[in-house]
Amino acid sequence: MKIFSLKHNAINSTIRKIRESQEISYKNVNKTVASIIDDVKKFGDKAIFKLTKQYDNFDLNLQNLKVKRSLITNSSTTLNSDLKKSIKKAIQRVSFYQKKKLPRSFLFKDNLGNKLGWSVSPLDSVGIYVPGGTASYPSSLIMTAVLARVAGVKKISIVTPPSQHGLNKAVLFVADCLKIDNIYQVGGAQAIAALAYGTKTIEKVNKIVGPGNIFVATAKKQVFGDVGIDMVAGPSEVLIIGDKSSSSEIIAADLLAQAEHDINASSILVTTSKTLAQKVLADVKKLTKESPRRNIISKSLKNNGKIFLMNSLESCIDFSNSFAPEHLELLVNSPERLLSKICNAGSIFLGKNSAEAFGDYIAGPSHVLPTGGSASFSSPLSSLDFIKYSSVTKISDKGLKLLGKNVEVMAESESLFAHKNSISLRLRNKK
Fold first, then answer.
1. Residues with pLDDT less than 70, the chain
2. Which residues in the chain are classed under CATH 3.40.50.1980?
């Protein structure tokens, strides 16, 4: 990790270089994933068994593809009681927050007596991908499944890679708390294909959400359109804005918290204080040596850890808005005063107490966030992603008379004469 002096006119070119270094080639992966999807569409469960043996070296069959209800129910028996309490608290807080976001169906009358509005309905079914191995986290399921439940989704299916050591008990406990029975031991692109198109055992869903590796992300891209998806997420990232009032130790700790995700994670500080930058760099080195995950952290910070020294707080904000980070921490004096100036960020954390880790686990907003600059055009996953709108229209007699002529004129101008006639017929019948 190094300190760089950055002038305002170099912000865009610097960010462009950072984003270019993060780009991943999907060329070979696209072909492999397309073949996997085609296999699952043609051969269903049999393809899943074959592909799981090929990629996960695990023998799946009709008896163990779907996780038995008894395993889900008994998941809590070996879990630490403090962990179970913490999971329940997280579910409670995420539910509370996400309920606040939900809109209601609404009808109103315009000045012609027409009734207009919208009807809000939950999606019928959702599939959730939960990564396996060292990335199998109960928080990933909380931050997706709770949102779907809050929105009113009745059918939720979970897919997660199989393991010789058994599935993550904490993940099963979360599923039990949320009354999710459909859990399938299948991962990778084949799991996404099964959710998108259905098999004899796994029912097709309306939307697929959840993080995954490059094969999962590519599969989601390829099935989009046949089914909805949340987003195609890349490596995680944090951008911290600090000033002379900031704690170098807290900033260093938060940079490391991001870096320990994986070697491709990005941890960036922008600041106006040279003294702070130097202290942070020293604290980063000290805390890295003390961390159990120092190997991952060291590689991550070497690849993507940066400190940018800028000449004004306004330049720091401009950098942030151009970078559009997944996580943005405003560790400055009176952070609320900057909030209105931030227009591109997935999740914003205000002040020294607001560690990004709160957002990962328990604050309330989902930790499924836009990455790679996509916060400039997309939003965090929320309960809104599990509902849909139907527009509602009821034309009054007055509306038919006064607006019908406009429709006739516009339809004729587009040579859509049946459209015009559907209005003319109604107008004649009203005379």
1. 134-135, 431
2. 2-25+234-377, 44-74+104-229
